[in-house]
Write a structure and sequence with these properties.
86% helix; 0% strand; 9 helices
């Protein structure tokens, strides 16, 4: 039983990590790719593209990481406020909470006698009762207190890793258009692989999901390149 609980807990943590990576990597691969493609159609030096790309990756990773941090803090604040509300209801609206607890046990098929016994037993301990109501009435799990910081780092670093993929050819090739050709090939392959794993995680057809992710990146880059060419002459 202990081994099962430990495995389940590890599984949930890994799910959070994978979710953060998907969020960061998705934008990290797409946004700098579109930026580099757009600039390739407007400037004659890869140096400008590299500087702009690094600046965008820095700003984007901070913004995405901050978004993940705020989301994690909001989740914690929401959980704490609901805990306070449950304690208040148990102390001041005890009859209503007992009714709601019995309704839960009735919903899982317990007899009237077992409903009364289970409710009486769980209501002896306020903390136990509150934890029970948080999970089964509100569907809320206690968030990891370090989740906000972990999420910020995971998303931010994933954004940086993704952003360096389309930008990397510009470090070694002088002509923007030539660098763009390599960037397109490398980035589209990475987008396809990323889309494949993302689709496997979410239960979508892997090939279809990978193709969609790759096409979104390609369309974004093509649009940016076209606009830069149009207005840059």
């Amino acid at each position: 039983m202990d081994a099962y609980l430990q495995h389940e807990e590890k599984h949930l943590r890994n799910s959070d990590l994978l979710t953060d990576i998907v969020i960061g990597m998705s934008d990290g691969l797409t946004v700098p790719f579109a930026l580099a493609a757009g600039l390739s159609g407007a400037v004659a030096s890869t140096g400008i593209i590299v500087i702009a790309g690094i600046a965008e990756i820095a700003a984007g990773s901070i913004a995405m990481g901050l978004g993940g941090y705020l989301a994690g803090k909001t989740e914690q604040d929401h959980y704490r406020s609901e805990v306070k509300r449950e304690y208040y209801e148990i102390e001041n609206l005890r009859d209503l909470e007992i009714k709601e607890t019995k309704e839960f046990f009735a919903g899982i098929g317990l007899s009237e006698e077992l409903q009364d016994r289970a409710t009486e037993e769980i209501s002896k301990d306020k903390k136990q009762w509150v934890d029970f109501m948080m999970k089964h009435e509100l569907g809320l799990e206690k968030p990891d207190p370090k989740r906000a910081t972990k999420s910020a780092l995971n998303i931010g670093l994933s954004y940086v890793a993704g952003g360096l993929v389309p930008l990397s050819p510009y470090f070694f090739i002088q002509l923007p258009i030539e660098a763009l050709k390599i960037s397109v090939i490398v980035t589209l392959i990475c987008l396809f692989i990323f889309g494949w794993f993302k689709s496997k995680m979410t239960g979508v057809n892997p090939f279809t999901g990978a193709l969609k992710v790759m096409l979104i990146g390609a369309v974004a880059a093509a649009a940016a390149f076209g606009v830069a060419k149009l207005f840059g002459g």
